[in-house]
Amino acid sequence: MSAFIGDWHALAVLFVAGVIPNQIWRMLGLWFGGGIDEGSELLVWVRAVATAILAGVIAQIVVQPPGALASVPDVLRYGAVVAGFIVFMLSRRSTFAGVVTGELFMLAGKWWLG
Question: Which is deepest, 17, 25, 51, 102, by most CB within 10 Å?
Fold first, then answer.
């Protein structure tokens, strides 16, 4: 079993340091945010901030790609952004659909280029 799991001490530390603190904030968010109207100004602002952070991360990855992504041609990276944006607009501004489309475009392009 230890060959499959590896060092169980590292997994325990990862669980205590990573999962437990994250879940506490998630549960508090569910508890406090359960009664807030989805159309309220607070949630509209939160959604705008989350979208802006996602756009910033995508822009940084496209302009200064880290690791193996640096081997992907610029045209393919920018094409994935354009494809994701088009699907985002066509799918009634679904962030999920846009991100998935961009990722699939990138993977298909990388596979096609070899």
Answer: 102
